[in-house]
Amino acid sequence: MKETMRKERATFLETNRLEFATWTEEDRPLASALWGDPEVMKWMSNKGFLNEDEVEARLTQEMKRQQEENMQYWPMFDKETGVLVGCCGLQPYSSDEFVYVLGVHLTRDHWGQGYATEAAQAVIRYAFEELGAKRLVAEHHPENQVCKEMLLKLGFTYDRDELVEQTGKMHPLYLLQSPSQEQQ
User: Fold this and answer.
1) How far apart are CA 87 and CA 69, in angstroms?
2) How far apart are the C-alpha atoms of 165 and 180, rounded to whole Å?
3) What Cα–Cα distance (Å) separates residue 165 from each residue in 45, 47, 73, 102, 122?
4) What whole-number distance in Å separates Cα of residue 2 and Cα of residue 166?
5) Angle CA(32)–CA(34)–CA(39) in degrees, nearest 5?
6) Distance in angstroms between the alpha carbons of the first and the last residue of the chain
7) CA distance linking residue 130 with residue 165, whole number of Å
8) What are the chain's domains?
């Protein structure tokens, strides 16, 4: 599984088990291992997979967002093994300033081990403490009950259903207020 190992790189965020880095051009094999997997993509795409060109476009989009917005769905690696666990991060939500979308995608080898919650907790703290987020938004495929339970566990509250173009389905949308915004 050499293609899913991290190369030596700077990390900027970590948890007990994970290190977060940023996507680079050299990460094509990692991006393919994640977004090229039909079991992962069935929750994010109506066709259930991304082809090589679409994976490349997704990787380019993430790197561009990091350059322009100082955020992306950052790749995360197991601290002990260096293996790619998935990605977790942020993107701007519509035109609302300081409102971001939280997203997490795991390689299927890492499902059911608490990595998504651990990663999301770290990114939530980063969003509120480092980026000054007012609110976070998250959604999930309507059939992904595990994701729903995780968002509720993280303190998100259901707001409404919203059509997601990539799946063609109405996805439940959740909100999480910044602790500092709640006190006002």
Assistant:
1) 17
2) 33
3) 9, 12, 19, 17, 28
4) 30
5) 115
6) 49
7) 30
8) 2-182 (3.40.630.30)
H-run or E-run covering 29: helix 28-35
DSSP at 7: P
Distances (CA, A) of 108 to 38, 126, 169: 10, 25, 22
10-residue mean pLDDT profile of the chain (184 residues): values are 59 95 94 91 81 93 95 96 96 86 95 97 96 95 93 97 90 92 57
Burial (CB count <10 Å: 0-12, 13-18, 19+), residue 131:
middle
Longest CA pairwise span in the chain (Å): 49
Beta carbons of 22 and 65 less than 8 angstroms apart = no
